[in-house]
Specification:
mainly alpha
Length: 100
């Protein structure tokens, strides 16, 4: 089983290779939420902030210790963008298909 599939199965991104996969997935979910929910005048700034935030060292720890959903919600909140009321809509759609 690949590292990314283990990360999804376990809800965590523990394997080193899976951290990159989880980072990409979380970024995609947040960017889609920004496109759908953020005021148009804040979207570009939120995406720029997300790009910077994803490079900070504590993000690896976050991705390694909490579920993908919780990491997504925490990263959004750290940007001052709360998707809590719509979180299920974004988190349920991005589970990769099982091709094993």
């Amino acid at each position: 089983m690949s590292a990314s599939k283990r990360a999804w199965r376990d809800g965590r991104c523990s394997p080193v290779g899976a951290l990159t996969v989880c980072r990409v997935v979380v970024a995609g979910v947040i960017e889609r939420a920004i496109d759908d929910l953020a005021p148009a005048d804040r979207a570009a700034d939120l995406k720029a902030g997300l790009a910077v935030r994803l490079r900070e060292p504590d993000v690896d720890t976050l991705l390694d210790t909490v579920s993908i959903g919780r990491a997504t919600i925490r990263l959004c909140r750290s940007l001052g963008f709360d998707i809590w009321s719509d979180a299920d809509r974004y988190l349920d759609d991005d589970v990769p298909p099982d091709s094993s």
